[in-house]
């Protein structure tokens, strides 16, 4: 594939495909634009869960037993914090904590999140670009049956239990695409992949940054979304629950409609019913990424699909 | 001994005698007023080294191998922070870090340092009162051959290498004695012990808090200082080096003169030369506290000395 590939991704689900892309592409040609709507300040630290998941995943540092956080992790901090009566609902490993502390210090010293993450990625020997959607704060807030909740309050503390009625992205109006995100989209990429992340909680915050949607539409590359649904439900996480609560049918077609005006191609899992005419080419395949091979295979198929669409235009 | 005992203490050296007092007295009758001039903000966290040393020491949580910090400590945070290019000159164990994080959160929420430390001491099942000298920030600053340095810059980062010409206590003018410190001194204690801490760096910050010196003088108890010198030099730490640099003779007599107007009795190590007439009774004994028994024995002797002086008045 000539030219770069830009992936748009949230946390764990999206990072699986990002890792597949990273492994099958020349590494330097991949840019992953990551959701920052989940970022929050906790215990005085700036925490960026999706960015860090992407860093750990592409850096080979992910905790594959837990499915989140860092490998070779220890938990002395959390254990002691609990004994002190502190807030332990958000689990912070000792190693993970170091990244948050270092980020907090450098952001306070005036460094941009983009520059900081680029430096950390380099230290993790990651050769792809991992870039925040914006250097300005955008915070996902969830309107629920228990009132409006900050994202992590909803997602971690309340474990997605409250019923969702709406989602908004605080600060989005004043945010701009981060410089490396804008640069990657302006550099005539060969493909743009919307990873199988939660469309409402992970991809929408990215698309809420003024100018980013236009940069995607104008980037010249075929825009391919991978449906996060497998067999009519989300593999993991609250996507299915949220779609039901928002009154959206739990179908790949509804996901495609959600991305209306943006898509040149759509990848649907083979376990899903035929989505019918979505107004763009559809590729049906296995999207369930259990093994590393699954991730690579899906990445290859998505890239080939993008190439076919790009050539056909 | 009838009535409470108030100890005035810095970190490691002073906490040894505080532990001795804690073990030989009815535990609830001891109040330790601790230096906060070493407190600082680092990696966004409020760190109170002398308070924490006292908490860990009296709580049976001190790291006896290292001689500082917490026992059963792990170092994943520091190790990872180093790999990220972060600041590792101040060593923070994973468990120790939890105390700093919890303190930072609660201070930011408006709790006083006194109230917070009382709560933590309770969680550590410490039955003595460990109280900060003040709830307002007082910061020790050291004038050196390399310019003025914040205390931890001088003490830890530069390992006391620069030559000291003066020491000041920033914020002291606006500080007040903490409520529990003032209350303990107003409650007619039976003895007041100046622990063998560094007079310049550990005890002077406490005495710099306006009103505290008068509360000590007016508390009615015999005031006994234990010299930090053993055999004509400090057991550990920069006391000797600083006295030389400030042009003060390295003698117990000079320490006693430093506390002039405050002392009713002075305890000198048996390895030291005869201090001569200090204008107050002198007790000569072993002040080198290697074992737990040494700590208890010195505590007993100091309390007996105080009783003799109190009875004689």
What labels describe this entry?
Rossmann fold; 14 strands; 313 residues; alpha/beta; homodimer; 3-stranded antiparallel β-sheet; 7-stranded parallel β-sheet; globular
Short note summarizing the structure:
Chain A is α/β, with parallel strands linked by helices.
Can you walk through the features of this model?
The structure is a homodimer of 313-residue chains. Chain A has a single domain (5-312), classed as CofD-like domains (Rossmann fold), CATH 3.40.50. The first copy, chain A, contains 12 helices and 14 strands. Chain A has helices spanning 12-24, 49-58, 76-83, 94-108, 113-123, 151-157, 179-186, 199-207, 212-217, 239-245, 252-258, 292-312; strands spanning 5-9, 30-34, 40-42, 45-47, 129-132, 139-144, 147-150, 164-170, 191-194, 223-226, 229-230, 233-234, 265-269, 282-285. Chain A has a 7-stranded parallel beta sheet, sandwiched between helices. A 3-stranded antiparallel beta sheet of chain A has the order 7-6-8. A two-stranded antiparallel ribbon of chain A has the order 3-4. The mean pLDDT of chain A is 95. The A-B interface holds A 43-45, 73-74, 76-81, 83-87, 93-95, 97-99, 101-102, 104-105, 108, 119-120, 123 and B 43-45, 73-74, 76-81, 83-87, 93-95, 97-99, 101-102, 104-105, 108, 119-120, 123.
The class by helix and strand makeup of chain A works out as: alpha/beta
Dominant shape of chain A: globular
| Overall average pLDDT of chain A | 95
Number of domains in the coordinates of chain A? 1
Radius of gyration of chain A, Cα only, in angstroms?
Answer: 19 Å
What's the total count of β strands of chain A? 14
CATH superfamily of chain A: CofD-like domains
What is the subunit arrangement here? homodimer
Low-confidence stretches of chain A are none
Largest interface: A-B, 30 and 30 residues
Q: Return the CATH topology of chain A.
A: Rossmann fold
The CATH top-level class label of chain A? Alpha Beta
CA-CA gap between termini of chain A: 16 Å
* Pattern of helices and strands of chain A: EHEEEHHHHEEEHEHEHHEEEHHEEH
The share of residues in helices of chain A is 25-40%
Outline the biggest β-sheet of chain A. 7 strands, parallel
Amount of beta strand of chain A: 15-25%
The CATH architecture of chain A can be given as 3-Layer(aba) Sandwich
Number of helices of chain A: 12
Strand order in the largest sheet of chain A: 5-2-1-9-10-13-14
